[in-house]
Specification:
The complex is a heterotrimer.
Chain A (H helix, E strand, L loop, with lengths): L2 H11 L1 H23 L46 H37 L1 H16 L2 H12 L6 H12 L1 H15 L2 H8 L4 H37 L10 H10 L8 H29 L8
Chain B lengths: L5 E12 L2 E13 L4 E5 L6 H8 L7 E10 L3 E2 L5 H7 L4 E4 L13 H10 L7 H14 L16 H13 L5 E5 L7 H18 L2 E6 L2 H7 L2 E6 L2 E7 H6 L4 H8 L48 E2 L6 E2 L7
Parallel strand pairs in B: 3-8, 3-9, 6-7, 7-8
Antiparallel strand pairs in B: 1-2, 1-4, 4-5, 9-10, 10-12, 11-12
Helix pairs in contact in B: 3-4, 4-5, 5-6
Chain C lengths: L5 H28 L4 H13 L6 H12 L5 H13 L14 H35 L5 H6 L11 H15 L19 H38 L2 H8 L4 H39 L4 H10 L3 H29 L10
The chains are: A mainly alpha, B alpha/beta, C mainly alpha.
């Protein structure tokens, strides 16, 4: 049976994973195709458009008949005249960027720390354990608030934000990977490998890593989720890249400008819907991965 | 008043799984008199533990008792009564002493509370003081200091935990006690102590005991009658003396000859072959694939459990068919 | 009453101290890493915006310089900083001079604690019961299959739900107030009408928190109940003829809830992050709104002070949970370490 149809059969059983991946594909297509219709350097930025785009189309709801050209703004515009569709497209892309960048760095650093500290033990392990345990009880958002407000105040870039978030996104993966390696270290198959004379590095790559993969996968999804959550939180507090149309910053403006209280519901609805989709997608992927990794949860075919 | 406290008649227990129907017990029949000790012997997968759960009506879906009757005191068929009535019977008429006492006690309750809660749920109309007294009495019966009642399970040793389980099994003075491999998880010395405790209590209270296990040597020292099970069917039934001195069924013969005994040094033989899967039993007698005395007819029809001779002896084998 | 072992209590208290110390030190180091003098900057910004110099400018700058003692060696600054913290002196709010940080936070903290504890307790209780019912084979189909679909809500951050709630419930349907802790014209007092008003205003924020955090408890509890139901003591309990009720509560839930409680302690930091933003949306008079305002005004002392206090509260809450846990699980707490 071809690999693709095996994959398809599995997805039909593990429908949560399938749904999650489906949303991912949809968002990806939405962004990619959307970029064709939208000039990402211009449309999402207020007043940066050439003179041709009339600023009087502010507050234009999606189906208002006396809009000059309703087809031009399928998602409406916000209080500053931005094309909400453009915001949706570029914002999604930026938010996913931040999530992935911070998440990947977090996983890399966190797994390295967790792995080495569990493997080598000793004082190094004690220090790492302290760092992780203590730092995990302090809410990440608060640490980020302290860092971000001290550093940039108002001039953070998208990449800058991702890097700042990476400063704390390693905590979760470090703890998870460390716990796993600790339990695996004493397992019989590792002891067998040692007795058989396998070198340390060999054991790491041939015995331990393959068994860590499901945890790495779960930790990656977790790290990306946490990173996106952190970026949205920072932005909502006003510490995001205020000039960029990321979804989090858009919501900041929605709050700041009391959009809902002015009846401009689409201004908030667009980013909220997209963000909700992103989180639901991540949630379903993580549940799906959990089922994949945990054979006990699987039902017999 | 019936002469039997428990009568198991042609009981079938089946599990309806995705992979097929698992026939865990087939046409199992035996009788138990008050005060009698019956040993149910067999390998893993022979159906003995399933029978224990079946008598207590604790077979969980996808399994059920699909046929047969289980009569208590000659008149009550417990396969037909409703769940609430069965619940009343559990612990008070038929009780169980579990296998691995390691985890059979609720970790967050004190020992005496676990003795008292079964009293509370059985309509005994006792005052709190009376229940506590009874709990203390039960602990003394199993040779434990009543102060153990104030401890939590994690503070007890393995042997003590097992005795607490026995105490819980007898506190309501049941008529039938089913002991499912009560000593498997213990060391030899504790094993002996626990078995002695069970024997002592049983004599005091006059309950009948069904002892389930795979250690025939242990069985022999404790039970009056023995039933041998294989792949869900009863192969042979008789007094301990008869079975050991004159085993009829080839399976029983092989089992006994494989026991290491002091006056039997030499080469030991296991029984060649493996137990069949309960999903796909061989046609005819379930033992025919491994039986050294298998005949043509053994692969065709299932032999019935029949009385053999004058005494209390039943065997299911074509070697003895009339 | 079981005796707690000294070892256990000390270890937990040590963790508490460690967490607080780490937070304090981070709060000290990070500003030092940036090359700015935030106070001077801020004042310059204000001056350029409004065209006049704030009253008391010189006093503020002098106080700032003295506090951070920029001319003194780093370790002396650190020691003085620690000393100040111990005396609960977290500095002065730049934007609300001369109010101290402690004053402002002290007024806001009870609101946040009230909201968070209530919402968390409700979410935990409801979620745990629901999760347990979902795993009990004798529950109705509605509970087992339909309700879980609502748990998706848990994936979405609380403040987004808060926005949706505000729009529909408060703005469109005008059922509940838009925000704040109490009506604009009301003066806080301890009377019953005031209490009712507070409850009306807290309902939506609490709802947002409950809806999003409940999902986690449900899933966790269901998993634990499934595990517990396979345990030997459940089988033996049934064999001794216990009623379904007793089995479910005293044998099942009582054991399954233990890891849930542990999970509760671990979830504190996450809950706090979420509720800070929810408060902001509702302009609820707690530390969340205070923090947001401090950020927008670049009121650095306030920012650091609020963060520190929140962390200390979390650490204390975790310590309290650690002390409560042995009451639930007799296996922990009387040995060493636990």
């Amino acid at each position: 049976m071809s690999r693709f149809s095996l994959f398809w059969r599995y997805i039909r059983r593990n429908w949560t994973l399938g749904a999650g991946l489906g949303i991912l594909v949809f968002l990806f297509l939405f962004t990619v195709i959307g970029l064709f219709f939208v000039d990402s350097k211009v449309d999402p930025y207020p007043l940066a458009a050439p003179a041709g785009v009339p600023p009087t189309l502010a507050y234009c709801p999606p189906v208002e008949p006396d809009c000059e050209d309703p087809k031009a703004y399928p998602f409406g515009t916000d209080g500053q005249g931005r094309n909400m569709l453009a915001v949706a497209v570029t914002g999604t892309w930026m938010t996913l960027q931040i999530g992935l960048l911070a998440g990947l760095i977090g996983i890399a650093a966190g797994s390295f720390l967790g792995f080495t500290s569990a493997f080598y033990g000793g004082l190094y392990d004690a220090v790492v354990r302290w760092m992780v345990d203590v730092l995990l009880t302090i809410p990440g958002l608060l640490i980020l608030v302290v860092i971000a407000s001290s550093i940039g105040g108002r001039s953070i870039t998208v990449t800058g934000m991702a890097l700042i978030i990476a400063l704390i996104s390693w905590r979760g993966p470090a703890r998870v990977i460390r716990a796993q390696v600790l339990s695996m270290r004493e397992r019989p198959y590792v002891l067998m490998a040692r007795l058989n004379g396998m070198s340390g590095l060999d054991i790491v790559f041939r015995e331990l890593l393959p068994n860590l993969l499901p945890y790495l996968g779960a930790a990656l999804v977790g790290a990306v989720t946490a990173a996106i959550f952190a970026s949205m939180g920072l932005a909502a507090l006003g510490l995001g890249p205020l000039r960029e149309p990321t979804l989090g910053v858009t919501i900041y403006w929605v709050i700041n400008q009391s959009a809902f209280l002015r009846g401009l519901w689409w201004w908030g609805a667009v980013p909220i819907t997209v963000v909700a989709l992103v989180f639901i997608m991540l949630f379903m992927i993580s549940i799906g991965l959990d089922e994949l990794a945990n054979p006990r949860v699987r039902r017999s075919e | 008043m019936s002469e039997y406290v428990l009568q198991v008649k042609d009981v079938d227990i089946q599990y309806f799984t995705d992979a097929g129907i698992v026939k865990a017990a087939n046409e199992v029949s035996f009788n138990l008199r008050p005060g009698e000790r019956l040993g149910l012997v067999g390998e893993s997968g022979s159906g003995k533990s399933t029978m224990a759960l079946g008598i207590l009506r604790m077979i969980k879906p996808p399994g059920r008792i699909t046929a047969g009757q289980i009569l208590l005191n000659g008149d009550l068929d417990i396969t037909k009564i409703d769940e609430d009535a069965m619940r009343e019977l559990r612990g008070s008429q038929i009780s169980m002493i579990p296998q691995g006492a390691m985890n059979s006690l609720n970790p967050v309750m004190k020992v005496k509370e676990q003795l008292i809660d079964t009293m509370k749920d059985h309509d005994l109309h006792l005052t709190k003081k009376q229940m506590e007294a009874r709990a203390r009495e039960a602990l003394e019966n199993v040779e434990l200091d009543p102060k153990v009642g104030d401890l939590y399970p994690h503070e007890l040793s393995g042997g003590m935990k097992q005795r607490v389980c026995i105490a819980i099994g007898i506190v309501l003075h049941p008529k039938v006690i089913i002991a499912d491999e009560p000593t498997s998880a213990l060391d030899v010395i504790t094993q002996r102590q626990v078995m002695e405790t069970i024997a002592h209590i049983q004599e005091q209270m006059g309950s009948a005991v069904i002892l389930i296990g795979h250690d025939m040597g242990l069985m022999a020292q404790f039970v009056n009658h023995m039933a041998v099970m294989y792949a869900g069917r009863l192969m042979e039934l008789g007094t301990v003396k008869d079975i050991f001195t004159n085993p009829l069924h080839p399976y029983t013969q092989l089992l006994i000859s494989s026991l290491p005994m002091l006056d039997n040094r030499g080469d030991f033989q296991g029984i060649p072959g493996i137990t069949p899967s309960l999903l796909e039993l061989p046609p005819g007698c379930v033992f025919n694939t491994r039986c050294p005395q298998a005949m043509e007819v053994c692969t065709q029809r299932i032999p019935i459990l029949e009385k053999h001779g004058a005494g209390e002896r039943w065997v299911a084998c074509y070697l003895y068919e009339h | 009453m079981r005796a707690y072992s000294w070892n256990f209590v000390l270890k937990r208290f040590g963790l508490l101290v460690l967490i607080v110390w780490t937070a304090v030190t981070i709060n000290f180091i990070i500003p030092k890493l940036t090359p700015r003098n935030p106070l001077r900057e801020k004042l310059m910004e204000q001056a350029s915006r409004s065209g006049y110099i704030e009253q008391g400018f010189d006093e503020m700058v002098a106080a700032y310089e003295a506090k951070f003692g920029l001319d003194q060696p780093l370790w002396i600054q650190y020691v003085r900083y620690l000393g100040d913290i111990m005396r609960l002196d977290l500095g002065v709010s730049i934007a609300n001079f001369p109010k101290t940080v402690m004053e402002l936070v002290g007024a806001a903290l009870p609101w946040t604690i009230g909201l968070l504890t209530t919402a968390t307790l409700i979410a935990f209780t409801l979620g745990t019961i629901l999760g347990a019912l979902m795993a009990w084979p004798k529950s109705s189909n509605f509970v087992k299959y339909i309700l879980p679909s609502f748990l998706i809500l848990g994936a979405i951050p609380a403040y987004l739900i808060a926005l949706i709630l505000i729009y529909f419930v408060a703005f469109q349907w005008k059922l509940l107030p838009l925000g704040g802790g109490f009506g604009i014209s009301t003066i806080p007092n301890l009377s019953l009408p005031f209490m009712l008003e507070v409850m009306k205003h807290s309902l939506l924020p609490a709802l947002a928190i409950v809806l999003t955090s409940m999902g986690g408890w449900v899933i966790g509890m269901r998993g634990m109940m499934v595990t517990v139901q396979g345990e030997d003591y459940m089988t033996f309990g049934e064999a001794k003829g216990l009623t379904d009720n007793r089995l479910f509560f005293r044998y099942g839930m009582r054991n399954a809830i233990l890891p849930q409680v542990t999970g509760l302690a671990l979830a504190f930091s996450f809950l706090v992050s979420g509720s800070v933003l929810v408060e902001l949306i509702f302009q609820y008079p707690g530390v969340g709104t205070l923090l947001a305002r401090a950020i927008s005004q670049l009121d650095y002392f306030m920012i650091y002070g609020i963060v520190l206090i929140i962390v200390v509260c979390i650490a204390i809450a975790m310590f309290i949970m650690d002390m409560i846990y042995p009451l639930l699980d007799p296996r922990i707490g009387s040995g060493g370490g636990g």
